[in-house]
Specification:
homodimer, about 290 residues, alpha/beta, Rossmann fold, 2 domains, three-stranded parallel beta sheet, 10 helices, about 45% helix, about 15% strand
Chain lengths: ~290, ~290
C-alpha cells in the first residue's frame, strides 16, 4: 500500500519546536502576534481564519483580525496595512487573497513591511525566493511542501520534481525553493502539452491546480512521491485534493507516497505561518 | 543540414526598430545614454565595454564609463551608483559582474534605481520577472533568448523547454519569461541526474553553463531548437559555446536549429541592452 504522508506528524514536529520558543518570548513579555487582514466575508477565508485562530491560541500566539468591507476603497486597505506596519505588538500579517477586483493587489501587497510578510507576498520576499537569498519569508504553502518532504526524508537533490500550477502562492515559489535544494524542477500548467508524460517522469509530483481530483492514474507511475496541494470541494460538497487519491494510490504502490486531503498540506501550511510569526517576533526581539 | 539561428538577423531587426526611436529622442534633445560601471580591468569586461561602445555609437546612443579600482571599497562603488541614479542625462546602467569578493553584490545591485536597471539586477526587477509583472527590465541575456525564438518563429506555447544553468543572469529569468509565454519549463544544473535524458525530451534546449563544448551528441535528438548562451574559450584559446556545435548539429538534423558561437546570442544581448536604454529614455521623456 502507498505510504501516507500525513500532515499531523509534520504539524506535531513543527509545534514541538515552536512551543519552547513561544515560552521564551513570553518570558520576555512578548506575545508573537499575527494580524489577519480580510476584505469581505468569503466562507473559505472565514474558515481559515477560525482554524488559524484556534491553532494560534493553542500555541500562545496572538491573532488580531482586521476585517474590511468587500467594497472598501484601496485607501482604507492601505491604512489597515500601514497600521499593521506601525504596530510594534504585531509581528506578522496574513492578507487573504484574491483581493476584490477593484483593488490593485500587487500594490497592496507591497505596502506590507517585508519583515512582517509571513506569507511571502511582497516583491522583496518574492525576489528573495527567486534569487535563493531569503529576504522576509517564503510563501507558507510552498514552505509547507518542503517541510513534508524533509519530515518524511524524501530526497530531492539531483531528483526531478514536476510542479503543476504556476501561481505565486505555490507553484513558482516551491519550484525555486526546490531548485535551491538542488532538485531539477519542471513547471507545468494548463497550457502544457502531454502533461501526463511529464508527471510520469518525475520523482516527486506537486499538484497545485485547484481542480478537484483532476490527476488520475494516468499521471503517475509506481514509486513516486505526490504532494497534493489542492483544497477543493467536489460536486457533492466533499473536501478533496487535486489528485484522485484512490486511483493515484493504486498506481504509486508500496514504494510510493502521497499526502491526503484533508489531513495533508493544509494543516502544515497553518503551522508554517505560525512558525514564521514566531521567527518574526524573535528577529525583532533580537533587535 | 541544421538551420542556423544567426544573431546578425535579429540584431538588424532590433536596430531597424531602434534607429527611428533614437532619432525621435534626438529631435527632442535627448541622447539615450548608458553608464557602464566596472571594477578592475578584467579582459572580458573591457572587451564587452568596447563592443557596447561601438554598437552604441552606431545607434546614436551615448556611453559613459565609470571605472573603479578592483580594490575600491564598497562606499566608492555606492557613490558611483548613486551618481548614476542622480544624473538625469543617464538612462540606463550596466554593472559588470561578478564584483570583487569584498563587495556585497546583492546590496550593490539594489542601490541602482529600477528605472535605470537595464540589465535586470535589482530585487524589484527580479521580482517583476518572477511574478511575470514587469518592474524595470529583465536581464538582457534572458530577453535575447526570447528575441531569437521570436525572430525565427520558434513556437514555445505548450512546448517543453529545458534550461541548463540556473544563474540569475540567464537560467532562472529565461525560465520564468518562457513560463510567461506558456511554455513548460525544466530548470537543470550541475546536480541534475541523467541530464541527457531530460535535454533529449525538450522541444527547445537552452544551454547556459559556461562549460566549453560540454553538450555533445548524446544531449540532443533530431528536430530540437538549441540556444547556446555560453561564451567560452577552449584550451586553444578559441571562442566557443557550451554546445559542441558540429556534434549537436549532426544530431539535430534538417528539422533542428541552433545558435552559433560566435555569431549567436552574444550580439543579440548587446542589442537588447541598447533597446532597454532607449526604452528607459523614452519612459523618462514621456514623464
Amino acid at each position: 500500500m502507498v505510504r501516507l504522508l500525513a500532515g499531523r506528524e509534520v504539524v506535531d514536529s513543527l509545534e514541538d519546536d515552536l512551543t519552547p520558543r513561544v515560552a521564551s518570548l513570553a518570558a520576555r513579555g512578548i506575545t508573537p502576534t499575527l494580524a489577519v487582514v480580510r476584505m469581505g466575508e468569503r466562507p473559505d477565508d472565514l474558515s481559515y481564519e477560525r482554524t488559524a485562530a484556534r491553532r494560534a491560541a493553542g500555541l500562545g500566539i496572538g491573532v488580531r483580525s482586521l476585517a474590511l468591507a468587500a467594497d472598501a476603497p484601496f485607501d482604507e486597505l492601505a491604512r489597515a496595512i500601514e497600521a499593521v506596519n506601525a504596530d510594534a505588538s504585531v509581528h506578522g500579517c496574513l492578507m487573504f487573497r484574491p483581493l476584490p477586483p477593484h483593488i490593485d493587489e500587487a500594490r497592496a501587497c507591497d505596502l506590507l513591511l517585508p519583515a512582517k510578510d509571513v506569507d511571502g507576498i511582497t516583491s522583496l520576499s518574492l525576489a528573495g525566493v527567486f534569487a535563493g537569498a531569503p529576504q522576509g519569508f517564503p510563501p507558507a504553502t510552498a514552505q509547507a511542501c518542503l517541510e513534508v518532504l524533509d519530515h518524511y526524508g524524501v530526497p530531492v537533490e539531483g531528483k526531478h520534481v514536476v510542479v503543476v500550477g504556476r501561481s505565486l502562492v505555490i507553484g513558482r515559489p516551491v519550484a525555486m525553493m526546490l531548485l535551491g535544494r538542488n532538485a531539477s524542477v519542471t513547471l507545468c500548467h494548463s497550457k502544457t502539452e502531454d502533461l501526463e508524460s511529464l508527471t510520469r517522469l518525475a520523482d516527486v509530483v506537486i499538484c497545485a491546480t485547484g481542480r478537484p481530483r483532476a490527476f488520475g492514474a494516468a499521471y503517475f507511475r509506481p514509486g513516486q512521491t505526490v504532494l497534493d496541494v489542492g483544497i477543493n470541494f467536489d460536486a457533492q460538497g466533499a473536501l478533496c485534493g487535486d489528485v484522485d487519491f484512490d486511483a493515484a494510490g493504486s498506481v504509486l504502490g508500496d514504494a510510493g507516497s502521497i499526502t491526503p486531503v484533508p489531513g495533508g498540506l493544509g494543516s502544515v501550511t497553518t503551522s508554517v505561518t505560525m512558525a514564521h510569526v514566531v521567527q518574526a517576533a524573535e528577529k525583532i526581539a533580537e533587535g
